[in-house]
Write a structure and sequence with these properties.
Radius of gyration: 16 Å
Structural class: alpha/beta
Strand content: 5-15%
Number of strands: 5
Shape: globular
Largest sheet: 3 strands, parallel
Order of helices and strands: HEHHEHHEHEHEH
Distance between the termini: 36 Å
Helix content: 40-55%
Length: 162
């Protein structure tokens, strides 16, 4: 089943279009340290996100974990991103928020990391380096989805996006 068919099935099943962002900011991790003093930052990030998934899975049409927050925590953070994706119930699509976009062979590696290693159903991309920077994502597996960044809402977006 394609990402978009999976998403539509989920939306129809629960009558919701809610996509839950999973962004374990350092401030969120800090707040958990007193409650869970034996866990390191990577495990606290996972705990933070799993708690959100467990509390929202009845209303979530999709989940969107932000790769950067996990990658910043090193190899254990990357592993915990994979564990988080595995924790998300089957039938709920996962959009990996990574905003990837790089040249040919690097883009191929990023696509493999997102779809094969992390097991995401979909990924966010930015196309500023041209079509070849997103081609491996949109052509490697027709069941996978891609959201391509067009315009962002941050204050300085007009610096490059106009």
């Amino acid at each position: 089943m394609s990402f978009f068919a999976k998403l539509q099935a989920r939306v129809d099943e629960i009558n919701s279009i809610l996509c839950v962002g999973l962004d374990p900011h350092s401030a969120d991790i800090e707040k958990l340290k007193s409650e869970l003093p034996d866990k390191d930052d990577a495990d606290l990030a996972l705990h933070f996100c799993v708690t959100i998934v467990d509390a929202t899975q009845h209303v979530a049409a999709a989940y969107k974990p932000n790769a950067a927050f996990f990658e910043a925590l090193g190899s254990k953070g990357v592993k915990n991103l994979q564990l988080l994706i595995e924790h998300i119930p089957n039938g709920i699509p996962v959009v990996l928020d990574a905003k990837r976009g790089d040249i040919s062979s690097t883009a191929v590696a990023y696509a493999k990391a997102a779809f094969e290693s992390a097991k995401a159903d979909c990924i966010t991309l930015h196309p500023y380096m041209g079509y070849d920077s997103i081609k491996p994502f949109v052509t490697s597996d027709p069941s996978k989805g891609c959201f391509v960044l067009c315009k962002t809402s941050n204050p300085s977006s007009n610096d490059f996006e106009t």
